[in-house]
Amino acid sequence: MSGWTEDERDGGLGRVLRPVRGGNGFEEALEQVLQVLRLGLVAPGERLPPERELAARLGVSRATLREVVSVLHTEGLVDFRRGRYGGTFVRAGARAPRSAGVDLEDVLAHREVLETGAAELCARRAADPEHGPALRAWLSASLAALDSAPLEPVAAYRREDTLLHLGLAERTGSASLAASYASVRAAVNELLDRIPLLVRGLEHSQAQHTALARAILAGDADGARERMREHCAGTAALLRGFLS
Which of 168, 12, 203, 183 has the alpha carbon at shortest distance from 111? Predict the structure, then answer.
């Protein structure tokens, strides 16, 4: 058993792209696609899902989706390519617009509460006969993917890192927690993009991921919570050091 779900096979898009609620279809669809770009789930040079698939994921008409993609193109975020291997591609060097006035301490506090809670819940579910086998298989596969991701350029590593954390939030069984975490993770990635790449910091982060995974796989809820708290604290220290 590979441990990979449909969401992992599609690069984690299923964790972010969900049917929009009525009334604001265009605005909410645009928000979700921009979040995909901020999270790096579709990297520069890669192709967005086909129009029909993307419209179905978002629960909007193809006409509405074309409006969304048109905005992305106008803002310089995507390019169109024709032909057999054509489609809509994320433009190299493009960056989705950032949230104005991101409050560093607010983001860090929100992240720690969600992440430590998610780690604890996942450790408890890992010990559960019903949910445990699939969760443990997924976590082992995700950690292996992160271990094999190159540290430079950082985009490849950060993508796998993001998928690991999004997956933990999702596997708590709480859709609300998963949605909240996707939002806060996008803000964290925005902040990380503002500081220098520190390979030593990434190596330390990966060691923490390994310790966290061991605690979850062992069903150690208290240990998982503490390992995640340490992990969040390390990232917070770097961000405060460069941005405060």
Answer: 183
Could you tell me how many helices (H) and strands (E) the chain has, helices first?
10, 2
Determine contact, residues 199/78, Cβ cutoff 8 Å.
no
Q: What is the pLDDT of residues 19-52, one digit of tens each?
A: 987 667 887 888 788 888 888 888 888 999 999 9
- Please tell me the total number of residues recorded for the chain in this structure: 244
CB 47 within 8 A of CB 92: no
Q: 104-243 adopts what CATH topology?
A: Four Helix Bundle (Hemerythrin (Met), subunit A) (1.20.120)
Do 195 and 243 touch, CB atoms closer than 8 A? Answer: yes
Domain ranges of the chain: 6-90, 104-243
Residues of the chain with pLDDT under 70: 1-11, 22-23, 94-101
Q: For residue range 106-119, what is the model confidence (pLDDT) as tens digits?
A: 999 999 999 999 99
Q: How many CA atoms lie within 13 A of 147 on its CB side?
A: 12
